[in-house]
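Lay summary

Proteins are chains of building blocks that fold into shapes. Our project writes down both the chain and a compact code for its shape. Here are two examples, one after the other.
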Amino acid sequence: MEVSLSNGETLFYQKKNGGEDILLLLHGNLASSDQWDLLIEQLPSNYTIYAPDLRGYGKSTYNKPIKTFNDFATDIKLFCDELNLTTFHLMGWSNGGGVAMQFAANYPTRVDKLILLASMSTRGYPAYNPDGERLQSREKIASDPMINRMLHAQTKGEKTFFEAAMNHLVYPINKPEKERFEKYVEGALQQQNVIDVADAANRFNISSVSNGIIEGTRNLKNIVSPVLVLRGKHDLMVSETMTLEIVNDMKEHDIHVIYKVLNAGHSPLVDDINNTIVEINQFLL
């Protein structure tokens, strides 16, 4: 299904009909709504689930480049307006956690409960060069060899490049079934906004401190919903330090936050789906 937004973008989305509890799912980078498939299939039927492809991902359009995560949050607000979703539970995975936090800060009364799964920090997701130095500008990111290698692989349709990268970084413990994995790789190949998102994630900062690139906006203080933070202890993409930044920044602003560690890597949805669902259900009840 798809919905046209008033800003000229069209978002593709998946929906699973269920009960009155609405759960909106926001995927991460090099991904699409397809990565939620196991969760959508296995969550109890009391949830009505919406899972959009963000702008520039999957089957959604990318008519206007994003500059900040505010652009994604605005898209989701317009998406919810079109579908008459007034209040709901919100869950973001990886970079989608940043979009979810930005949305909850911008539109606090619309989020009942917020779940951050293997999420980027409240202070962004830093971009580093091969020497481990933080990239300070969009121009530096655009000229980074690894970013350009990724763009080349997308242009040439090099599935093996993304298969190897995802197997190593996202699925180091358990591998998805072949058919699912092929869908996940296809989603990575479809992404249209690699440089824009890397720059926006590098500069994202809703905390009250500097992240080394930009001062925090302090928008985190606007979040009023309870928050569940879930991290896989074997995560190679999101460090424990980044996760603790989320927890500590939220506690600083008196946000009710629960932090749980799963026996998983960057994708608890594959590595530890049963316990992930248990934690989600306990939190949302």
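And here is the second example, written the same way.
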Amino acid sequence: MGRKRRTIGWRARALGAVLLAVLLAAGWGWWTLRHWTPDASAYPDQGAEISARDGAVRFMTLKALGAGFVYVDAGSGSRRDPAFAANLAAARDAGLRVGAVHGFDPCLMADGQSASFVVVVPRGSDMLPPAIALDKTADDCPAPVGEAEVESELMTFINQIEAHSGKPAILQVSKAFEDRHGLAGRLERNLWVVGTFRQPTYAGRPWLMWTANESLFTEASEDPLRWVVVRP
């Protein structure tokens, strides 16, 4: 009986040790992923995407961490990001290159969306090319929207913001949008892909920019930030 108890006790301690090791490994992996950025020797041009949801961002700290540029969210659909002007000014004051991102809504006409972009985003040769975030799909629309209509309105929106900025737009295409609409291969614009840690391949062709960590914890903000790199 005593031997049986000792055997059970040994097994319980061994199992406890294994579970502890697994938990420690999982915790270390989670911490590492939350603080991971691509090697600067492979991707020397790195930065972040910032919006009102990120709260107060210390842009000088962001620059000290290795950011050379910032893309600031200007809005989504016909809605403007309330922190755009302040974030843009603060990023410039910190000596960062700046650009604007607008989230395209396939449920809305292009004209209203481009009007929102044009009103808040300044022109200037110092601005980076504008970026269009393609994340929301037509499946989210209250009324049916056909594929041809999505592509037509998107092209109208692209043309309108390119006319305003004087530079070709970059398309930030999410996997969900590409899986649903498959436009990355049909639109001749530089691509910006999204996927933490592993380089995404869903776009089907080479990309220019990559959101390599969608939730990077840094000293620059109380909230996690989106960390972006540029293909050399």
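What can we say about the second shape? The first helix runs from residue 2 to 34.
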